[in-house]
Design brief:
Elements (H helix, E strand, L loop, with lengths): L1 H13 L14 E8 L5 E12 L2 E11 L13 E12 L2 E17 L5 E17 L5 E8 L2 E3 L3 E3 L2 E8 L1
Antiparallel strand pairs: 1-2, 1-10, 2-3, 3-4, 4-5, 5-6, 6-7, 6-8, 7-10, 8-9
Amino acid sequence: MLFRFLLFTQLVLFSEFSHGQEEEVVSDNIVYIEALGAGGLGSLNYERITFRKSGFQIGIRLGVAVNKFKDFKNKFNPDFAFPITANFAYGSAFKGEINIGTTYTNTVSADNTLQIQRSTAMHGIVAAGFRYQPKHSGLFFRTGYSPILEKFTRLRHWGYLSIGIVF
């Protein structure tokens, strides 16, 4: 009886160490704020990692930005920007990245008669930089150079700095 009790106790106490290999869970979601960059002066972004293999990953980013809250008549009438990019990164926690995509903007301006007019436009985005992205949850940082091809005709030099959370 004592032998059975000791055997049972040993099995219970050491069962934690007897498991086979467990599959590593990697976080694929990132939420971050970005200063400058594809959304203009600042944006709130969500990125989902859709492919990952041997240090290489592909993520899809969707963002929203409000750059001006009042129009030229000092009325509440915000300008919006919606960046959409594919992000390619390589490395372990510290990664090099290249981003390709577009930003859709909806802005307010004055027409010939000084009436409020909304206009929409698409802009090309190509960016290169570095990111710190832990495999599991934690703080996320990125920075780099992000030229914007305004209305796909005029090149504007721009940078970006982001901070967020991986979950």
